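Protocol check, entry for the methods section draft. Step 1: assemble the input record (protein sequence plus ligand SMILES). Step 2: submit for complex structure prediction. Step 3: store the structure tokens unaltered in the notebook. Ligand used here: 2-acetamido-2-deoxy-beta-D-glucopyranose. Step 1 record:
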Amino acid sequence: MVRESILLALVALPTSTLSLHTSPGLPFVINTWGGPFTAATDAAYLALINSATVSALDAVEIGCATCERNQCDGTVGFGGSPDESCETTLDAMIMDGTTMKSGAVAGLRRVKHAIAVARAVLHHTRHSLLVGDLATQFAVENGFVEENLSTEESKRRCEEWRARNCQANYRMNVEPDPSTSCGPYKPLPLDQSALAWAVAQNPEPPSHDTISMVAIHSSGAMAAGTSTNGASFKVPGRVGDGPIVGSGSYVDGDVGGCGATGDGDIMMRFLPCYQAVENLRRGMSPTEAAEDAVRRMLRKYPDISSGIVVVNKKGDHGAAASGWTFTYAYRGGEMNATAVVTVPPLTAKDEL
Ligand SMILES: *[C@@H]1O[C@H](CO)[C@@H](O)[C@H](O)[C@H]1NC(C)=O
Ligand SMILES: *[C@@H]1O[C@H](CO)[C@@H](O)[C@H](O)[C@H]1NC(C)=O
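Step 3, stored output:
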């Protein structure tokens, strides 16, 4: 599957000639990132094609769970993105575009299948978001098993991070100096000059990928979801954009859906997926809707890394990115394989 997608990526035309990505038909699945993430696209698409009883919500769960099991590029599921204490915690959210119901977990500890726990929140509570150890307790009540989310690989990455004086590092305005030293840290009096843009610095660009997926059932019903293990070497307790409705993903089956990845700490301040779906509602194409959402962030944070995929209810799709070359994967209609689209970054200069 990976080999097929690489071939497709190689033969893909430059995106400029493909800016109108028309729908290949329904059912349809789209998600952030190509490469190993195409296994998720295929799993979700094939589930929709092969069984009449698989819903759009099921497909999103199946797709995201594929990355949680095989770890995709290490940024989803167990054994990735250790925090300062070397622990891996998971964030996930799933949303039903028909009812607008959503379920999410954040900072989930010791349970591997975050997207399935998020779905249990959707179906078995009237809430939208459970966090931390108490989300773990809820998961166990719902039949999930507690497991160690650390692996030899995540332990090694964390030890290497400590050996390089805990660089890169998300702390600011603390002592000892977080750009040269490990903690424990104490807060410093706030210096206005240091405050405003420090978080825009990107400590380790490739560390915050995420799978965000939108699925459209042949009936037209839509769902969206996100699963991630967050940012590497984050401050323990940190929750990113993944489990936030309208940020990590969003869907309104009357209009379309969106999935996001990138600097979640910043992106969650802009609700880019809510923005993109509202842009669709107001008549923009998927590409225009995505570009507008990314530009809103770029205007304030010129160094932000972001990538968002947008699809309307017919399956026409588009994307936009900043700070990195983004890829996304999709498969729909009668496509024999998942296609990967490369999206060059918009730059802050485009805003001048
Ligand atoms: C979890 O796995 C890691 C890596 O194999 C190991 O170092 C650690 O001791 C384990 N933790 C527990 C609580 O079993
Ligand atoms: C899919 O595969 C079939 C049989 O191998 C082939 O005839 C068809 O052209 C392929 N369709 C696409 C869209 O590649």
